[in-house]
Design brief:
Strand content: 15-25%
Number of strands: 18
Largest sheet: 4 strands, antiparallel
Shape: elongated
Structural class: alpha+beta
């Protein structure tokens, strides 16, 4: 059909030229309308590979490993892992992303075994392993299993009977550290037992996971009841549910005590804030959402301030407590180094 139309056009053009009709006397034909883009699936020769791909006008579509993926052509050129575009030792780009033509399309695409080859208009060749594309595609990421988080209350946590990790196992084995981090990622809290009850051992424990974050309280804080400090935490009074350091530039979360004067919003907005605050407070104070634990010497509790609020009841007698703040990025990096999808 197309060959017939092309022959007809060629003969018509030749007749016009033989008649002496100048080139500007007829309009250039619209080849896009004459020859619509033929898009079809290209299948691999090996049926066991179960791979097919389709080249669209503005993107590349790949079906492999039970996943249908779509890639923008600029993305494919930008993520080239050839020696001239990517430093495999530093894992950094050598290619200037801004230099890639936003309308770029491959001249040719071919599949060799499990490797896709894209040849670009300037002759540069990008090759991709099919499994790499699955791991790094948007569709592949959506299917990726991350470390689960459990939304829990007191009953769920107690029923789970989450084991604590022993101090020596935590310090001396990767298995102990990994078990601790699994609990911490799952629930947002985790316990370590049999810790010598000193500030030095608590600090050593913290450094096993992360850098200790310097704050206005210093590197390690150690306190007992002392109202002269001007902070309710240093008293025997009850502390309502809260997270810490909300007054820092990078706060951990919500704190019902350390709120500055609300003076940057109009009255109608601030009223809605108080209504939302009331709803949140009611939920936080439901008994089923509280898990009470008595800390004894030798037991250390880690709390994820992004997930779990903490507090205490009022008490009598003498109490000493030490602790510190850790950097969240370091905790997650440690988990990833141990194979957890943090």
């Amino acid at each position: 059909m197309w060959c017939h139309r092309l022959s007809h056009l060629q003969s018509s053009l030749q007749n016009l030229l033989r008649r002496g009709v100048p080139c500007w006397a007829f309009q250039q034909p619209n080849f896009k309308s004459l020859f619509p883009l033929a898009i079809h699936w290209h299948h691999t020769a090996s049926e066991s590979l179960n791979c097919a791909w389709k080249q669209h006008e503005d993107h590349f579509e790949l079906q492999y490993a039970s996943t249908v993926m779509r890639f923008d052509y600029v993305w494919l050129r930008d993520h080239c892992r050839s020696a001239s575009c990517y430093n495999s030792k530093t894992h950094q780009r050598s290619l200037d992303t801004a230099s890639v033509d936003l309308c770029i399309k491959p001249k040719t695409i071919r599949l060799d075994e499990t490797t896709l080859y894209f040849t670009w208009p300037d002759g540069h060749v990008t090759k991709y392993d099919l499994d790499w594309l699955v791991r790094n595609s948007y569709e592949g990421q959506k299917q990726k299993v991350i470390q689960p988080r459990i939304l829990w209350n007191a009953e769920i946590y107690q029923r789970a009977q989450v084991p604590s990790v022993d101090f020596q196992s935590f310090l001396e084995t990767n298995e102990g550290l990994k078990n601790f981090l699994q609990n911490f990622l799952l629930y947002g809290i985790a316990f370590i037992e049999n810790v010598p009850p000193t500030q030095e051992h608590t600090e050593k424990l913290a450094e096993r996971i992360s850098l200790i974050r310097e704050t206005i309280y210093g590197r390690m804080w150690y306190f007992t009841s002392d109202f002269s400090r001007g902070d309710t935490a240093y008293t025997k009074l009850a502390l309502d549910r809260h997270t810490d350091t909300t007054y820092l530039q990078e706060p951990c979360g919500y704190n019902n005590y350390d709120r500055a004067v609300i003076n940057t919003v109009p009255y109608d907005v601030v009223h809605r804030w108080y209504a939302a605050h009331r709803t949140l407070t009611v939920e936080l104070r439901r008994p089923e959402n509280e898990f009470w634990v008595k800390l004894k010497p030798g037991r250390v509790l880690f709390i994820d301030n992004w997930r779990v609020l903490h507090g205490r009841e009022s008490f009598t007698g003498y109490r000493q407590l030490c602790g510190c703040y850790l950097t969240r990025d370091d905790i997650l990096n440690t988990a990833r180094l141990l194979g957890l999808q943090a």
